[in-house]
Design brief:
The structure holds 2 protein chains of 2 kinds. By secondary structure, chain A is α/β, with parallel strands linked by helices. Helices cover 42% and strands 25% of the residues of chain A. Chain A is built from 10 helices and 10 strands. Chain A has a 6-stranded mixed beta sheet, with helices on both faces. In chain A, strands 2-1-4-5 form a 4-stranded antiparallel beta sheet. In chain A, α4 crosses α5 and α6 packs parallel to α7. By secondary structure, chain B is mainly alpha-helical. Chain B has a domain of 223 residues: MetI-like (MetI-like fold), CATH 1.10.3720.10. Helix content of chain B is 68%, strand content 0%. Chain B has 13 helices and no strands. In chain B, α6 packs antiparallel against α7. The longest helix of chain B has 31 residues. The chains are: A alpha/beta, B mainly alpha. Chains A and B meet through α3, β6, α4 and α6 of A and α10 and α11 of B.
């Protein structure tokens, strides 16, 4: 690799994680995580439960603190400074396993909250943006309902739209389909595939291997707080190097 | 769908819903299920019904049939039953204390304002309900004080010594809870805070006002509190007990709120964080509305407790309704032993108000129940 391309690479790197370490009390959850994500790259993180995959992406928008190492998002280093954290959070959207919509607000209000209160946009403009994204996730007719009146799949699509309303540059997905009934997984994955096709930088913790094969540029396999292997989906799934990944793959694919 | 199947599909039609069998609905089924479900249950039902049949006719006879309703003074009380003439003759005192008779409309106006603001706070369209009713609520206690006192709004001055009766109980309780609301919310936040100083101050405050009996607090308010004010300032006795009630109430409500905070799933905080809301935005827009919703029954219960506790004000000589009753009972024109009528009357009006509030609480709960949380 020439020096020039390296410089170009570092400009395009939106997330740079270096030697990230995290402990819960005495428990070492993340061990020397190193990960660089380029702009527009789609990364799928998989691994057994408790392997630290959710914790890793939750560090990126600082829902979790870490004790050692450095994390740079969009050229801004994540430190204790509150202003920095909120600035980063505006650029990074997050979708949760349990949707976490605000149950006391309508769908439209859920979507406009960020644009109105964080980006200080006028209400009319915020609603326009909200309707645009609701149409994109194909449920504009649900705008005036409350989250509790929607199905799980619809709620998760609203949650995706809510993140997109803040026009983030990076989207984090924390097991977005794990809490869904089988019939609803596809509608959520479809939205995510569409988003990937549009060039969004995505980090996605999921066990949907079909999705990984379809959109991921890179798949990362984690276990016991470490990145065990990373590769393109084809290589990683068809040619696992470690016994741990072979075991994992045999367990999730043998059905 | 890319899937292709071997055979042509047979159309699936869901079966129609059928009505529930008769034995599970209707009055007879309800009685069988709830009153006579087993032999001991049936025995208890019959025993209690016999007991009620024994007592209720006597009560009805005393209250309504043998009772005296008309008359103007003690001499009218000749029947065997209750003498409601006593209550009637003293009714103005019971409701308004010694408030100047031709100014009583001001008390009524305050009560009506209170009622209107309460009704508005859950009938206004949701889009601007909070924006309107929160400021109204916060202004209300001071507006009522101005109206009742009169000096600020250019009306005849009525000294607080003359305020009294049941209206005082209602207005005191309402004024205390309204002002206590924001305070208790802050105490609850403080107690949950990561900052050691804020947390320990909150804990000490909350536990002090929850741990000391309200009677002792009233004594402190009337005797000790003046020591803290600058020399020469004479703070009105009612204002002092108002402050005591606010502190007492905010200690209890802080714990109610804390319970509410704990009921909010951490995902709500994380979602609010992830869209970049600041601490106060997150707390006020996302967390507080949900906290109030889950705490509503407890808030109302605490309020009912405070409302009933206002009768303890008699201990420091404030002429609220029970104190007025005691004055009436010792009046030389009414020495005919009307204690039972008096206490029944006070009991009934308190019960009506408290029952009304529980109805209101359950109504609000149903209204707020928009999320069928998963």
């Amino acid at each position: 690799m020439s020096t020039e391309s390296k410089v170009a690479d570092s400009v395009e790197d939106t997330i740079i994680i270096k030697d990230l370490n995290k402990w819960y009390g005495d428990f070492h959850v993340l061990k020397d995580i190193n990960l660089t994500v380029k702009k527009g790259e789609k990364i799928v993180i998989c691994g057994p439960s408790g392997s630290g995959k959710s914790t890793t992406i939750r560090c990126i928008n600082r829902l979790e603190e870490f004790q050692r190492g450095s994390l740079i998002v969009n050229g801004v280093e994540m430190v204790e400074d509150v202003k920095n954290i909120e600035a980063i959070r505006r650029e990074v959207g997050m979708v949760f396993q349990h949707f976490n919509l605000f149950p006391h607000l309508t769908i439209l209000e859920n979507l406009t909250l960020g644009p109105i209160w964080v980006q200080k946009k006028p209400k009319a403009e915020a609603e326009e943006i909200a309707m645009k994204y609701l149409e994109r996730v194909k449920i504009p007719e649900q705008a005036d309902k409350f989250p509790g009146q929607l199905s799980g799949g619809q709620q998760q699509r609203v949650a995706i739209a809510r993140s997109l309303c803040m026009s983030p540059q990076i989207m984090l997905f924390d097991e977005p389909t794990s809490a869904l009934d089988p019939e609803m997984i596809k509608e959520v994955l479809d939205v995510m595939v569409e988003l990937a096709d549009e060039g969004m930088t995505m980090l996605c913790v999921t066990h949907e291997m079909g999705f990984a094969k379809k959109v991921a540029d890179r798949v990362i396999f984690m276990d016991a707080g470490e990145i065990v292997e990373q590769n393109t989906p084809e290589e990683l799934f068809n040619n696992p190097q470690t016994d741990r990944l072979q075991l994992f793959l045999s367990q999730i694919l043998d059905h | 769908m890319a899937n292709t199947f071997k055979s042509d599909p047979i159309e699936f039609k869901p079966a129609e819903a059928k009505p529930a069998p008769d034995s599970t609905v209707g009055i007879v089924a309800w009685m069988r299920g709830n009153l006579f479900s087993s032999i001991p249950n049936a025995a208890f039902t019959i025993l209690i019904m016999l007991g009620l049949a024994n007592v209720i006719p006597d009560i009805i006879d005393w209250m309504f049939i043998s009772s005296t309703w008309s008359g103007a003074n003690q001499d009218a009380c000749v029947g065997d039953g209750a003498c409601w003439v006593f209550v009637k003759a003293w009714s103005q005192q019971f409701f308004y204390g010694s408030y100047t008779t031709d100014q009583i409309w001001r008390v009524n106006l305050s009560l009506i304002l209170l009622f209107v603001v309460i009704v508005m706070s859950f009938t206004l369209p949701a889009s601007y309900r909070l924006k309107v009713s929160v400021p109204l609520f916060l202004v209300l206690p001071f507006l009522c004080i101005a109206i009742l006192d009169g000096r600020l709004v250019g009306l005849e001055h009525v000294n607080t010594d003359f305020w009294g009766g049941f209206s005082l109980n209602v207005l005191m309780a309402a004024a205390a809870i309204i002002v206590a609301f924001p305070f208790s919310f802050l105490w609850a936040l403080g107690r949950r805070s990561d900052m050691p100083l804020a947390r320990s101050i909150s804990v000490v405050f909350i536990e002090f006002f929850r741990g000391v009996p309200v009677l002792a607090l009233f004594f402190m308010g009337s005797v000790m509190l003046p020591l803290f004010f600058a020399e020469g300032t004479n703070v009105d006795k009612l204002v002092r007990v108002w402050i005591v009630l606010i502190f007492f109430m905010s200690g209890y409500m802080a714990e109610v709120f804390r319970g509410g905070f704990q009921a909010i799933p951490s995902g709500q905080y994380e979602a609010a964080d992830s869209i970049g809301l600041g601490y106060w935005q997150k707390t006020l827009l996302i967390i507080l509305p949900q906290v109030i919703k889950v705490s509503m029954p407890n808030i109302l219960a605490t309020f009912v407790m405070l409302f009933k506790n206002t009768v303890f004000l008699l201990i420091i000589g404030i002429p609220e309704v029970l104190q007025t009753l005691l004055t009436a009972l010792s009046n030389s024109n009414w020495l005919g032993g009307h204690a039972i009528e008096g206490y029944v009357f006070v009991g009934v009006i308190f019960w009506l108000c408290c029952f009304g509030m529980s109805m209101l609480a359950s109504n609000i709960e149903k209204k707020l129940d928009t999320s069928h949380r998963n």
